[in-house]
UniProtKB/TrEMBL annotation:
<dbReference type="InterPro" id="IPR027417">
    <property type="entry name" value="P-loop_NTPase"/>
</dbReference>
<keyword id="KW-1133">Transmembrane helix</keyword>
<feature type="transmembrane region" description="Helical">
    <location>
        <begin position="42"/>
        <end position="63"/>
    </location>
</feature>
<feature type="domain" description="NACHT">
    <location>
        <begin position="152"/>
        <end position="270"/>
    </location>
</feature>
<feature type="transmembrane region" description="Helical">
    <location>
        <begin position="465"/>
        <end position="485"/>
    </location>
</feature>
<keyword id="KW-0812">Transmembrane</keyword>
<feature type="transmembrane region" description="Helical">
    <location>
        <begin position="618"/>
        <end position="636"/>
    </location>
</feature>
<keyword id="KW-0472">Membrane</keyword>
<feature type="transmembrane region" description="Helical">
    <location>
        <begin position="497"/>
        <end position="521"/>
    </location>
</feature>
<dbReference type="Pfam" id="PF05729">
    <property type="entry name" value="NACHT"/>
</dbReference>
<feature type="transmembrane region" description="Helical">
    <location>
        <begin position="527"/>
        <end position="548"/>
    </location>
</feature>
<feature type="transmembrane region" description="Helical">
    <location>
        <begin position="437"/>
        <end position="459"/>
    </location>
</feature>
<protein>
    <recommendedName>
        <fullName>NACHT domain-containing protein</fullName>
    </recommendedName>
</protein>
<dbReference type="InterPro" id="IPR007111">
    <property type="entry name" value="NACHT_NTPase"/>
</dbReference>
<feature type="transmembrane region" description="Helical">
    <location>
        <begin position="555"/>
        <end position="572"/>
    </location>
</feature>
Length: 743
């Protein structure tokens, strides 16, 4: 906390110094003012300094905006009454948002069941205390009464969709009411176990008596409490130690399978070292039975599957609105086995609500669960609801599929919908449409942009020979191995527009970088610029000499180094150093740029069908020709002959070792940026994240779980979307939309 306060104070001081003192002085001197005598030799640096100061001002402003957007945590001592009151308010808010966003709540709203309390819990609960036989819980019994009977130590078991999380949230609401009434009662906190990765390590602020595994668990728990309920980590640790928190842990089965067995010793040690008076854990029955050791809890509550009579009673309570669902069940007996949980009952309710019986009796299907979920998705997306943004079926389903696929692939995390993709290669996600756009559109555009931008800058600065040298170097480097591009047909929306966008961005970036390099060489003088370039090249060579033990490779490295040094010495002895240093800088940049572009598609798609060797050469040549035409139109003096610049380009290209297969440092971030762009371009990720998440929440696919936080309405809904074929499901949604419009 002290370090964060120090950093915030430092940012504030720097911001004030920049905006009120340094930047005004620099602008005054740069626009003709008089500089102090001791600064007179450095007046030529004023405008570059102004640019740097502007960048620093913008950076500090962005830091301040980010700090203001973070939730402010109370740093008072843990026994302050306001801390407890604030925490309870946040718990209440979270529970109400989870309840409002649940599928059960959406079903009750759609069917107007809020006035029918007998339709609240259409399932049976069986309680089994430690070393005792199971017995049925009376229908009117409250879950907090059962929790108290099990001495505040309970395991909730059930099948997928049985209502385990719903039961845990109900318990949390009742415990929160007790905490409001009794200042000594612990505060209930619902925590999703999916994010626990069983990290085992000790840090300075951990309790020395805790094992590394428990220390990692307490750290993770403190972070979850801070993120979800804004409880400061220090306060959370204190409350945990003194028994002021009731831990309600949801989803043992959602922990990565390799770490599930580690929860038992962690909870055992936690209850020994900390005063955890109230503890509840939920888990799927099948996954719990596979654990090598069971949890040391006093008893378990089993949620039994729905019976046929319970389903019929539920339909009778709802009335004619579910005649279509009743007809579907009566038409196909296998649906009875499928509708055995509240989740599937709610899915069927929302899928067939208000539909005529004859519309839903079109015959059985091989995979009833998949078909029922397809029907649910089709129905909720086809309904016209007033939202700020509308999406066509193909776009909506593609985005839901991508979010579901990504969320499921994240170590069991089912509650996070990403703001952007995490930096993990290409995430194991290989889409034919995205791959074809990468190889058939983006790579040609990048090569053409690099060639056009660099050639244009050298033409403008040093004439036609320098431009030809850059274009020739780029052409040779692209033609040399490796050739990672594949022979894929261009598929996807607006291919011409995408090519133009990539070409424009790439050309602008190339001109900006090469222009900055040329300006820096002019500013620093030739000797300093060459010293910096030599240091960069020598550093790279030294690393290779140390890392690689191949004597033949070392020999060629030495030969290349001798050639570069000798050529540089000869040119500097006979000619002007500035054009040579500029050419060397451009040669290095072009070579590294080509290496980077070649590295873009190689980390996610195996090279099975290598494309035409000459295909990218044409793009490079076209970019160079375009640069010459633009230079002629703009009136550039192409007759200027700067042989030193040509020599510098050749030396820089040779020194860069651009034919190495190892990708450069920035290839990974650029590859991820390109993949994210193409996922957005093809409709797999939303451009406006918040608008799409709200759209999906309005249609019961997502649920809002907090400020700007959304979750899939249920694990099974997420898994179904992740496993579907998005375009096929989108076709079904479009068909259903046409049926509703026609009806």
């Amino acid at each position: 906390m002290r370090m964060r306060s120090f950093v915030n104070g430092a940012v504030l001081v720097v911001s004030l110094s920049l905006t009120l003192v340094l930047l005004p002085i620099a602008i005054n001197v740069g626009t003709g003012g008089t500089a102090p005598a001791f600064l007179a030799p450095y007046v030529g640096w004023v405008w570059p300094l102004i640019g740097v100061l502007w960048v620093l001002v913008i950076a500090t402003a962005l830091l301040e905006v980010r700090n203001r957007r973070r939730p402010r945590l109370a740093h008072r001592s843990a026994d302050q009454p306001r801390n407890r009151r604030n925490a309870l308010d946040r718990v209440d808010r979270y529970l109400s948002e989870r309840r409002a966003g649940s599928l059960a709540s959406r079903t009750r709203i759609a069917l107007a069941l809020d006035g029918k309390p007998d339709a609240v819990r259409p399932f049976d609960l069986f309680v089994q205390p430690l070393n005792s036989a199971p017995r049925r819980i009376p229908y009117e019994a409250d879950i907090d009464t059962v929790f108290d009977e099990l001495e505040d130590s309970m395991l909730v078991l059930g099948a997928p969709g049985a209502g385990k999380t719903t039961l845990l949230l109900d318990l949390a609401r009742r415990l929160a009411a007790q905490a409001h009434a009794d200042q000594q009662a612990p505060i209930p906190v619902v925590v999703d176990l999916a994010g626990w990765t069983a990290q085992s390590s000790h840090r300075n602020d951990d309790d020395p008596n805790d094992s590394p595994l428990l220390a990692g668990f307490v750290r993770w728990l403190s972070y979850e409490l801070s993120d979800r309920y804004s409880i400061p980590p220090g306060v959370g640790r204190t409350w945990l130690r003194h028994g002021q928190l009731a831990l309600l842990l949801d989803g043992l089965d959602e922990i990565a399978e390799a770490h599930r067995a580690k929860l038992e010793p962690v909870l055992k040690e936690l209850r020994h070292n900390y005063q955890v008076g109230q503890l509840a854990v939920t888990c799927r029955t099948h996954d719990y039975e596979r654990l090598p050791r069971q949890l040391s809890l006093f008893g378990a509550v089993h949620i039994r599957p729905l019976t046929r009579q319970q389903v019929l009673d539920y339909f009778a309570i709802v009335g004619p609105a579910l005649d279509g669902a009743r007809a579907a069940i009566e038409h196909d007996d296998e649906l009875w086995e499928l509708v055995s949980s509240p989740l599937m009952l709610n899915v069927m309710t929302l899928a067939y609500q208000g539909r005529a019986p004859e519309d839903v009796t079109a015959g059985g299907v091989a995979d009833l669960r998949r078909e029922l979920f397809d029907t649910f998705i089709c129905e909720v997306l086809a309904r016209n609801r007033k939202t700020g943004r509308q999406y066509d079926a193909k776009t909506a389903v593609r985005r839901l599929w991508c979010l579901a696929w990504w969320t499921r692939s994240r170590a069991g995390d089912r509650t996070a919908v990403p703001r952007w993709m995490a930096p993990d290669g290409w995430y194991g996600l290989s889409l034919r449409e995205v791959d074809s756009l990468t190889h058939a559109v983006c790579l040609p555009a990048f090569f053409a942009a690099l060639s056009a931008g660099a050639t244009l800058m050298m033409l403008a600065q040093y004439g036609a020979l320098a431009g030809l040298a850059v274009a020739g170097s780029a052409l040779v480097l692209v033609h040399l191995l490796p050739h990672p591009w594949q022979k894929l047909a261009a598929r996807g929306p607006d291919r011409g527009l995408l090519f133009a966008v990539i070409l424009l961005i790439g050309t602008a970036a190339t001109i900006a970088v090469t222009g900055a390099a040329l300006g820096l060489v002019e500013l620093l003088t030739a000797k300093i610029a060459l010293a910096i370039e030599a240091a960069l090249v020598a550093g790279a060579y030294c690393v290779e000499l140390i890392v690689f033990h191949d004597n033949r490779r070392r020999m060629w490295l030495g030969v290349r180094l001798v050639v570069v040094v000798a050529a540089s010495w000869i040119v500097l002895s006979l000619g002007d150093g500035v054009p040579f240093a500029s050419g060397a800088a451009i040669g290095l940049l072009v070579a590294q740029g080509i290496r980077m572009i070649k590295s873009l598609p190689t980390d996610h798609l195996p090279a099975t069908d290598v494309g035409d060797t000459w295909r990218m050469d044409v793009c490079v040549a076209a970019g160079a020709v375009a640069a010459f035409l633009i230079a002629l139109v703009l009136g550039a003096d192409l007759a200027t002959q700067q042989l030193e610049a040509v020599a510098g380009i050749v030396v820089g290209t040779v020194a860069a070792k651009a034919w190495r297969r190892r990708p450069p440092v920035l290839a990974g971030p650029l590859s991820r940026w390109l993949h994210d762009l193409l996922l957005h371009w093809t409709g797999y990720l939303p451009w406006r994240r918040r608008a799409f998440l709200q759209y999906a929440a309005d249609r019961y696919v997502l649920a809002r779980t907090g400020h700007s936080q959304y979750a899939f309405i249920h694990l099974l809904v997420r898994d179904h979307l992740a496993e579907c074929t998005p375009d096929e499901l989108a076709t079904k949604v479009e068909r259903r939309i046409l049926e509703r419009e026609g009806g």
